[in-house]
C-alpha cells in the first residue's frame, strides 16, 4: 500500500509524519505547480471549485510515482467539499486508475466504520500506536504553523528582502527527505532559529492586514499566488483567519465533544450572520469583525470562484467595511487568475492603506493631540 | 388593518408557495406575490447583488425589490434543512443575510429558521414562529397550518400528474395533455425548480419542448419512494436534498431507460450543480447510454443559442430513433 494525499499548504509535513510514524509507505505529491493545475483542470468538471482541480492534479502526479491509495478527509455538507471523495473517485476511475480511497469523514454516529477505516490505514489495531502517531502529527502541525507565524512577523521587517523565504524554501526542500517525528521536529527548530536570527530594520513602517476566506485558498500558497510572501515584501504583517492546526483541533478533537474554540468568533459574527451556513462563511465574517476591532489596517478576502458560502460572506462584508471603516479587498481565484493583475491590485490596496494611515497620523498632528 | 405579507416569486417559491400562501391567508393576512420575472426585474436584481451570485439569487433580489415598497413584511425564511441530515444550498441558508445586506430600505423580513437537520421534533415551534407575525393565537395557527398542508399536498399531486406551475400558475387541467404537437418522445428535464418554472430564467424551456412534441418527465413525476430507494444505494449519503433527488433519478433512469434523452438546466456558478450535474451525466450518458444536453444559463444567455441547441438535440434524438436499430451488429 502506497498512500498519497492532496496538498494544502504545510499540512503535508504533518501528514507525512503521521504516516511515517505508522510505518505506512507514502508518496508525497510534488509541490503544486502549473502542471498540477493543468492536469486537474483537464479532468475535472468545468464549474467545480479550484481545490478539487488541484486535488486531482496532485493525485495524478502521485499516481505516476506509484501511489495506489488516497487518503482524504471529508465533511457532511452543506459545502460541496463533502462530496469531493465520490466525485474524485469517479474521475479517477474513468481515467482507468483503480485506487483505494481511505475516507476520514466525521463519523456522524457510525464510529465502527470510522475506526475500521483508521485501522485499515494504520495497518494495526493497536490504539496506543495510532493515538501516539496522531499526537505527533498534530504537534508537528502546530510547530509548522508557529513557523509561519514567525515568517509573517519577520517578512515586513527583514533588512534584506527575501531572507525569510530563503530559509523557508530551504526548509520545504529538506523536509521532503526527512523521515519521522524526531528528525522533522529538529529541522523545524533549526529553521525557527534561523528565522529568529534574521536582522530587522526598525525604521520600516509595518501595516497590518487580516486575511479571511475559504480555508484551502488562504492556506495553499500556489493557489493564492503566494499572497503572504507578496504582502510581506510590501511591508505588510498579516494574520490568517484559518490555520490547519486550529481546524484540526476544532473538528477532530473538540467538535465531537461539543466544545469549540470559536465561541468568540461566532459571537462577533452574530449581528451579521445568525447561523452557520457551511464552509467558513461565519468565520470569515467573525474574523473580519475581530480584525477590525483589533485595529488592523485592512481586510483581504480570498476564495475560489463559485464558492457558495463565501459568496454569502462577500455580500455581507461591504457592510462590515462601512460599519468599522476598514478597507476591504476581495480576491477570487480560479485556474485563469493571472499573477500580474493580482499583484497590481495588491500594490494598489497596500498603497491605499499606507496613505490612510499617514492621513490619520497627520490629522492627529494637526488637531493637536 | 390586515398585515400585508409579500412573498417573492423566486427560489423556494416554486416548491412551497401554496403552503405559505394558504397558511397566511387562513390567518387573515393579505398575501402579495411579486410580479412574474421580467427583464426590468432581472436588471434590478443584477444591479443589487454581488456579481458572483448565481442567476436565481439575482432574480430573487429583483423580486424583493419589486415587493419592498408595497408590503409590511417580506417572507424570506432561513431555509437550512428540510430533511434529517440533509441540507439545502449554503446560499439558501444565508439568504436573509444576503438580501438584507444587498437591498437597501427593506421592510422587516420574516426570517425564521427552518432547520430539520437534527430532527423534525420542533416543527411546531417553527410553524408557530411563522404564524406569530400575524397572530399569537396557537389554535388559529394550528388550524391554518393544517389547511396549508392540504393545499400543499394538492399542489404536489398536481405536479406529479404533469401540471407544471410555470411562473407559479398551475397549467389548467387538460392543457398539458393536449399540446400543439402530439408528443412522440419523452425527455427528462432536470434542474432546480426555481429555474425550470421561471419562464424568463429558463427561457421558457418547458413550453418550447412541448411545442417540439416532447413529453416532459421531471423528477417529481417519479414515485418518491423509488427515488429514495435508489438514492439510499449511494456510496455516501448525498447531503443536499435536491442532489439526492437528482442522483436518485439518475440511477432510476439508467436502469429504466424509459426516456429518449435528458436535458439538464443549470445556473452558471451553481455549486450544487457542479457536482450533481457531473455525476448525473456520468451515470446517464456514459453508463446508461442516454443522450444528454446541458444548458447553463446566466443573465447574459441569448435565447437564440439555446433554441439552436434544443433543436439540434431533438433532431439528434429523432434520427437516433429512426435510423439506429437497436440490433446487435453481429445479428
TrEMBL record, chain A:
One of its GO terms (molecular function) is kinase activity. The keyword Transferase applies. Keywords: Kinase, Transferase. This is Nucleotide-binding protein (Sugar kinase/HSP70/actin superfamily). InterPro entries: Dehydratase_Activator_Redct.
UniProtKB/TrEMBL annotation, chain B:
GO terms for molecular function: kinase activity. Residues 4-222 form the DUF2229 domain. Keywords: Kinase, Transferase. It comes from the Bacteria. The keyword Kinase applies. InterPro entries: CoA_activase_DUF2229, Dehydratase_Activator_Redct. Coiled coil: none annotated. The keyword Transferase applies. This is Nucleotide-binding protein (Sugar kinase/HSP70/actin superfamily). Signal peptide: none annotated. Pfam families: DUF2229 (PF09989).
